[in-house]
């Protein structure tokens, strides 16, 4: 089973598109707008953001900028973004630092924790022995609770080389968000304008060489960005951006040289841990990139819905358990999605409204989950790249959409380790690349080790995407699994429940035995006349072997395959005679509901070797009729056993004719009153010493062996 991640990082630069719409830039003091960073050489550059610009980027997004700076330390790292400058060494306060041989496109690593204060920083060509040979030097003030990146930009040969600072609050954004900044380090480009998600007006205007905007906090999502050389466009560069799965501070730096085709202009994405990713653009005019979208209704008590995309009704009358069909191919970008009750004239009463972003080659399933009446209704989306599948493989994803369940873990085919751990309501996981086969998908509650539900998923004929949704309400209608296949069809799978099985040793001449199940000892050293408690076994086929105690399955005196069904309660009873060659196992269904007060419940199994079919009469009624060897008769409830006195006599006949019984067994009234009893005829008609007797099993432990009051059958 191969695990796969969701959507790979395509281009982080695009995320700056969400700086518009009133976002607050961390560390910015001017009208809550991003301001140009101050060049440590004293040049503030040009205005990078037009306060009056219409930042048309689609849905308005307001970031959470409530960060909590570390009050005691400052962070510092260095980024080399000057494409034609050689590798450099960094000197601090006149001494060589640990940052040596830093080449273009490299960062010094994670932020170094330093005491706040002013440091004299110098940059020399790598290997220089004297700070006097510095190509740059300046005093840098580091503030407590701030992360400072000193970054080189421009072209050394063309005289536009410089070093400037980007400062951000610490700590960075957590999971689901990023603190994003953009820096312009590319030579011969001039100021740039940023267009996001095909908007008509730029999100950012007039960002010049050596300037930065941000950082600002925004969702870790995917976007499309165009970079233009004028406010009117068109875009000179287009980036397909995916911030999914990224967190913390991310600095996007445009680097290179527009006038040199051998170099070109591209971007570096510098993550908070110091990782640097190279991001290449696609040229305008390249084939339009597409993503794939479908919708699934997984909220059991929500009515049918209509799906509106960009203000237009697109999917009509989608009911619970239904999907919109196969994946729709759509151009990449962000779509405004609204959900209304079926038949609504407009979206004013939408139960959900929000953006859904498609990135190139991503497969997105938007789904409703939870309970509308219970207040847990929600809408989310699962996105993943198309997995590489071999023949007879499929991509299996899972979504927790069931109300009143809590977090769950999923195990496959009874495995010890979950393949999905602690998925909460609304969460999705996968896809897992698995072979096309039938699977038992077990559900554990949270981090527990016991399966509480198991779904038998028939996937041997499936291919491509299979998305399994756990739906329903654990406190109400119950839970089921809906499998959504790649073509858009669905199949509902009801849960199975453990079978409750006990073992009874009623083969009178067999020694103590070990009962092996699927190659492991399940019941050790089990003697005649005893019964186990009920064992919990999931539905399915089990290989059972019975061997003398201490022996191996190869020495089994009996082996078989037992198939157990969901919710079955049964006894597996070893019967017959080992010496006579009639030893076998009979499976008898059990009804374990309580007996009526003052009565008794009797069930019967014929396990006596060489005895024909029998009829049994008690309290003047034939309670069991025509039961052959190996057969069992269903439970019979006797309403008033006290009326029989101290004993209830069971008369055993060998035919339906009412004549003198062949055997009579007296059952003590005090022993069977209010009890559920499994009576097993044991022995062998040909054994003159033991004969035929009755084994009464009341529960776990040793049963009661009752000899007949009439002479045994001979």
Account of the 3D structure:
This protein has 714 residues and is mostly beta strands. It has 4 domains: 72-279, no CATH class; 290-493, no CATH class; 499-588, Immunoglobulin-like (Sandwich), CATH 2.60.40; 595-706, Immunoglobulin-like (Sandwich). The strands form 13 sheets. The chain has a 6-stranded mixed beta sheet with strand order 1-30-27-33-34-35, with no helix packed on it. β20 (305-309) and β21 (312-318) form a beta hairpin. The longest helix has 4 residues, at 669-672. The chain is elongated, with a radius of gyration of 38 Å. It starts with a strand and ends in an 8-residue tail after the last strand.
Features:
single chain; 714 residues; mainly beta; Immunoglobulin-like; 4 domains; six-stranded mixed sheet; five-stranded mixed sheet; elongated
Strand content: over 45%
Tally of separate helices: 1
Structural class: mainly beta
Please tell me how large the radius of gyration is. Answer: 38 Å
Q: Uncertain regions: pLDDT < 50 for 5+ in a row?
A: 1-69
**What do the pLDDT scores average to?**
82
Our measurement of the CA-to-CA distance between the termini, rounded to an integer number of angstroms, reads 62 Å
Percentage of residues in helical conformation: under 10%
Largest sheet: 6 strands, mixed
Structural domain tally: 4
Please list the strands of the largest sheet in the order they lie side by side: 1-30-27-33-34-35
